[in-house]
Design brief:
28% of the residues lie in helices and 24% in strands. By secondary structure, the chain is α/β, with parallel strands linked by helices. Strand 7 and strand 8 form a beta hairpin. Helix 1 packs across helix 11, helix 2 runs parallel beside helix 6 and helix 6 crosses helix 11. The longest helix has 20 residues. The two termini are 25 Å apart.
Length: 469
C-alpha cells in the first residue's frame, strides 16, 4: 500500500509551524546529549508550562483535579509527566513512552593512563554500536563527578567553539593491510576504544619533578584539579560519557533533514514531550513517560523494568482521591500507549536488508510497527488488530501522515522497545516513532516532515477518548 509523501500536503502556514517545531527540536538535541541533560530539559520545559513536582503537590495536601499538571523525576534520569483528565484515572490513561538514553562510550571507573607519550581514557561502550565508527571523529565529554563530600561537578567539554575536543585514533591506511582483512566487528575492538586527551608533560619546575614518571598523565591530573576541582580518585564516583561533539544541523541541500547524535530516541522524547505540554483539557489523563536504559534492556532503577512508573501512578491516584490497589490495576489495564521509538528508514545503498513493501521511508510520516522482536517475533509486543484499526481512524481524522513498517527482512535481525514491558499490565500498546537513516551511528538522519508528523500524531493520540476493544 503506497503512502503519500508528507511534504506534498503542506501549505505555507503548516510549513512555518514545521520549521518552528524542528528548530526547537534541533536545540533540544544540541543541549541534551545525555539522559541527565534530557531529563533536566524536560523538567525545565514542563515547569514553564505550569507543571509542578509530585513533592510539591504532596506538601500542599490539596486533591488533584482535572487540569492539574504533575511531574516526577527519579535519580535525574527518568521523568514522568501527568496532565489530569476529566475521566477518573481508573478508566485508563493515554501514555506516550520514549527513552532518553542513546548509544555512547562510558568512561571506566579507573580510566586514566599514559602510553606512547599520550594520556588516554579507557571506555566501555553502551548499547549496540559499530565500534569502528567511533574512531577518528571529534568527541565531547559530558556527565557528572560526585565527590566524597557530596559535591556534584557537572561537565560538558567539547561543545563550544572555543572548547577542546577529544577522540579515538585510527590506523593510517599505509599500515592497515592486516587491519583491512578483519571482520567489521573487530576492525576496532572494544578494549581499543581509548580516548586521547593529552600529550603535554608536566613541567620540570622542581628537582623532585624530574624523578616523576608518567608526566603527561600527571599534567592532565593537574589540569583537571585546577580547572574543574577533580582528583583522580573522583573518577570512581563519576558518570562521564563520550559523545560526538557538535550541534544538530540541517542535512541535505534542501534542508529537508536533520543530522544529529542521539536521535534514537530523543526524536520521540521531544515530540512526545511537546505534544504533552501543548495538550489542553484532556478527557483521559495524559502521560509522558521518559525512561532510561532502553538500549541495554531497560534494566536498573531508572529503566522501564523498575517499578517507578507504577509507583508514581499510585502516588498521583492517591492525590486525586481515587487510589486503591485494584483501582491502580484497572488504571494500567485500561490505558492506551504509544511506545515511541525509532524505526529503520529504507536505504537504497543497502536495499537487500529491507523488504520494500514493509519498510519505512523518509518523508512519509510517523511509523507504526505492529510488532518488533527478531526472526519469529521473539521478544515482541504484538498490538491487537482492534487497536490498530482505532489508531488508523484517529490518525486519518487528524490529518496525520503515517506508515507501517518492520525492522528489516524477517531473518535479517530485529530489535525491541519498552512496549512489551507495559503490555504486561494488559494495556493496548503499539510501537510508533520516526524512521532514521544511520540508526545507532554517531550521526543519525531524520526527515523534518516525519518529526513534525510524529508531533501531530502524538497530539492527536493524547486527545483521544478510547473505547476498549
Amino acid at each position: 500500500m503506497e503512502r503519500k509523501n508528507a511534504w506534498n500536503g503542506y501549505d505555507e502556514k503548516e510549513l512555518a509551524r514545521l520549521g518552528a517545531v524542528t528548530e526547537e527540536y534541533k536545540r533540544f538535541l544540541s543541549e541534551g546529549k545525555t539522559e541527565r541533560e534530557c531529563a533536566a530539559l524536560a523538567v525545565k520545559m514542563a515547569k514553564e508550562r505550569g507543571y509542578r513536582s509530585i513533592e510539591e503537590a504532596r506538601k500542599e495536601g490539596k486533591p488533584l483535579k482535572a487540569g492539574d499538571k504533575i511531574y516526577g523525576v527519579h535519580k535525574k534520569k527518568l521523568v514522568v509527566l501527568y496532565h489530569i483528565g476529566k475521566k477518573p484515572m481508573e478508566e485508563g490513561m493515554n501514555i506516550l513512552g520514549a527513552h532518553m538514553d542513546s548509544p555512547r562510550l562510558d568512561l571506566k571507573q579507573n580510566p586514566l593512563y599514559e602510553d606512547g607519550e599520550m594520556a588516554l581514557l579507557d571506555t566501555h561502550y553502551y548499547g549496540g554500536i559499530k565500534k569502528y565508527q567511533w574512531a577518528a571523529i571529534p568527541l565531547a565529554l559530558h556527565g557528572v563527578v560526585v565527590k566524597k563530600d557530596g559535591e556534584i561537578i557537572e561537565l560538558s567539554i567539547g561543545e563550544q567553539p572555543e572548547d577542546p575536543v577529544v577522540g579515538i585514533s585510527d590506523l593510517l591506511i599505509h599500515l592497515s593491510a592486516e587491519q583491512m582483512q578483519k571482520k567489521a566487528a573487530v576492525v576496532v575492538e572494544g578494549e581499543n576504544l581509548n580516548i586521547i586527551i593529552g600529550s603535554r608533560p608536566l613541567r620540570e619546575e622542581e628537582e623532585e619533578d624530574k624523578e616523576k614518571k608518567e608526566k603527561i598523565r600527571l599534567a592532565v591530573l593537574k589540569l583537571l584539579e585546577e580547572t574543574y576541582g577533580i582528583r583522580e580518585e573522583d573518577f570512581v564516583s563519576a558518570e562521564l560519557e563520550a559523545v560526538p561533539a557538535g550541534p544538530a544541523r540541517d542535512f541535505g541541500l534542501d534542508r529537508s533533514m536533520i543530522l544529529s547524535y542521539g536521535q534514537d530516541d530523543r526524536v520521540c522524547v521531544f515530540t512526545s514531550l511537546l505534544a504533552q505540554l501543548e495538550t489542553e483539557n484532556p478527557v483521559c489523563t495524559s502521560v509522558c513517560l521518559l525512561t532510561d536504559k532502553e538500549e541495554i534492556g531497560s534494566m536498573g532503577a531508572t529503566g522501564m523494568q523498575s517499578r517507578y512508573f507504577e509507583n508514581m501512578t499510585a502516588e498521583v491516584m492517591e492525590l486525586t482521591g481515587g487510589y486503591s490497589e485494584l483501582g491502580l490495576k484497572r488504571c494500567l489495564q485500561h490505558s492506551h500507549m504509544l511506545s515511541s521509538d525509532v524505526s529503520a528508514a529504507f536505504d537504497p545503498d543497502y536495499a537487500s536488508a529491507f523488504e520494500k513493501k514493509n519498510a519505512a521511508y523518509l518523508g512519509k510520516g510517523m511509523v507504526f510497527n505492529k510488532y518488533t522482536g527478531s526472526r519469529g517475533k521473539s521478544g515482541s509486543n504484538d498490538a491487537c488488530a482492534e487497536y490498530v484499526g482505532a489508531l488508523r481512524r484517529m490518525l486519518d481524522d487528524a490529518g496525520v501522515c503515517w506508515q507501517t513498517a518492520e525492522l528489516g527482512k524477517v531473518d535479517q535481525g530485529g530489535g525491541g522497545t519498552i512496549a512489551y514491558i507495559t503490555a504486561n499490565y494488559g494495556m493496548d500498546v503499539i510501537d510508533s516513532g520516526v524512521a532514521l537513516l544511520n540508526m545507532h551511528c554517531p550521526w543519525e538522519i531524520s526527515s523534518k516532515a516525519d518529526v513534525y508528523e510524529a508531533y501531530k500524531g502524538y497530539t492527536a493520540f493524547l486527545r483521544e477518548e478510547w473505547q476498549d476493544a
